[in-house]
Amino acid sequence: MPRRFKKIEKAIEKIIGKSEIESISSNENENENDIIENETVYLDEETEINKCSHNSDYILERIYNIFSHLQNIFKFIFGVSGIYLLWICLHYFASHLYVKFCVPSTIMGFILSPFMTATPHCQGLRWVVYNAANMINNMWIVCGTWVGSTLLNFNTQTPRDISS
Questions:
Q1: Closest CA to 4 of 12, 106, 88, 83
Q2: How far is CA 80 from CA 89, 109, 148, in A?
Q3: Residue 140: how many CB atoms within 10 A of its CB?
Q4: Which of 13-27, 31-45, 142-156 comes out lowest in average pLDDT?
């Protein structure tokens, strides 16, 4: 059994306890014995057990590999989309805060709006709205370019290059 599976077994033993694992494995052994008694087995018992343990190790290793690849993919997607989501959130909240604090929808807000636009918090919110909108536009351009290049990826090899 690979070393990483032994580490997983030790972690499971710490979490649920060794006695529960032994009772589960003894129940599995009883079930396997019942199945073996009910079916005709053409191989000797030791070969059959080695075959089952090899299959379970292979399956566990495949599952571990799949999950490790999925974890790497999710980390990459979160890293890329996290920046995009940050700019979207900044744009959304700054837009709403600007309307609330700098140009309220009342008569008094209309009268005070020329004076409020010069205040530091309104200038900062305008800066965030403007730059966040530009970043979102640029990200759409990058995503569109990537999708276009992926969809229109032509094979540049000629038949002569393939045959040699």
A1: 12
A2: 15, 40, 18
A3: 11
A4: 31-45
Q: Indicate the Cα dihedral angle 14, 19, 22, 28, nearest 10°.
A: -100
CA 130, 131, 137, 141 dihedral sign is positive
CA-CA distance, 135 to 163, in Å (whole number)? 46
C-beta of residue 132 within 8 angstroms of C-beta of residue 87: yes
Mean pLDDT, all residues of the chain: 75
The terminus-to-terminus CA distance of the chain in angstroms comes to 45
Mean pLDDT of 144-159: 74
Q: What is the pLDDT of residues 78-110, one digit of tens each?
A: 777 888 889 999 999 999 999 999 998 899 988
Q: Which of 92, 119, 88 is nearest to 103 (CA)?
A: 119
Smallest CA-to-CA distance from 90 within 132, 45, 37, 32 is with 132
Q: 156 φ, ψ to 5°? A: -90, 0
8 A C-beta contact, residue 116 and residue 122: yes
